Input
Amino acid sequence: MLQSARGGVPSSRVTPGILGLAAIRAAPQLLGWVLCRRLPEGVVKLKIVETEAYHQDDPASHSFRGQTARTAPMFRVGGHLYVYFTYGRHYALNIVTGPAGRGEAVLLRAAEPLESIEIMQQNRKLTDVKKLAAGPGRLAQAIGINDTTLTGKLLDLLSIYLEPPKKSVRSNEIIVSPRIGITKAAHQPWRFYLKDNPFVSKL
DNA sequence: TTCCCGATTGTA
DNA sequence: ACAATCGGGAAC
Output
């Protein structure tokens, strides 16, 4: 699925294999993909190292109580973006994964800076590379997301897109654990991260 | 219209 | 350990 776009073929340039894929299956498969964001200063790139799945029958999910103006993007077909504002200060970026009408998405929780690191350091007003994108709010800020203009938009070469993993990720490198910062369905093992990777938000 | 609280982070 | 800070959505 997500392995399809290898060899420089820009076929799935915009959407890997997440189209119509359940969030719980898409979340681990997104690990290793390179998140790319085109900014006025240059293109920043980061390897996705930590994700969480949220779906419609999940009490912790924004889509649980049905579609609203804010959550509408979650109900679009996979490949759309869902950006929300939380705690009065932070933005979080999700990649929508379900079929249209389903309300599923993967929260990007942490990433390893690869290219244009200086730009991300400026965005974060911080030099420590390990903390540039270790956490959903930090990740969003690092790639210049300071509002919700991207929510409801499609992954798109002109602004934000994904590139295939440089090295394929083996399943035994993926750690599964409960999600962070939630109170409902807190025991569900729907968080995924790369084993021993120093850029994850927490161990 | 009011009230509660959150898919977090930086500081003490 | 805790405050900061504000909007979504349930409740009244």
Summary: Confidence is low (pLDDT under 50) at residues 1-14 of chain A. Residues 62, 65, 68-71, 84-89 of chain A lie near DNA strand C (CB under 10 Å from a C1'). The helical segments of chain A are 23-30, 117-124, 136-142.
